[in-house]
Write a structure and sequence with these properties.
Blueprint (H helix, E strand, L loop, with lengths): L4 H10 L7 H22 L30 H5 L20
Length: 98
């Protein structure tokens, strides 16, 4: 597949890009054709005996147990709040009625 000016114009329109001049457009055509050439080179490789990668490394993520801990009581949490009632924090109203 070769990239031409019409293809670049179509991609530029979809990406909402503008080129300053024709030299910039020609440079983009050259770069895109180089990218496609690189992909064609990669397609020449025999990958039939290569296992697909799920992770990039063999490292195992060490996770801790998800245990519920009650390290602070409700009363302890409320005692430093600037405004609170017996059970909840009081905050300014942020949503008004329509």
């Amino acid at each position: 597949m070769k990239i031409d000016k019409d293809t670049v114009d179509k991609i530029a329109h979809l990406a909402r890009l503008e080129f300053a001049n024709d030299a910039a457009k020609d440079s983009m055509i050259k770069d895109m054709n180089n990218m496609l050439g690189f992909i064609d080179k990669l397609n020449e490789l025999d990958t039939s005996n290569v296992e697909p990668l799920i992770y990039m490394s063999e490292e195992v993520n060490v996770l801790r147990e998800d245990d519920v801990k009650h390290e602070i009581t409700q009363q302890e949490a409320l005692k430093n709040a600037p405004k609170h009632d017996s059970d909840y924090f009081k905050v300014p109203k942020v949503i008004g009625k329509v």
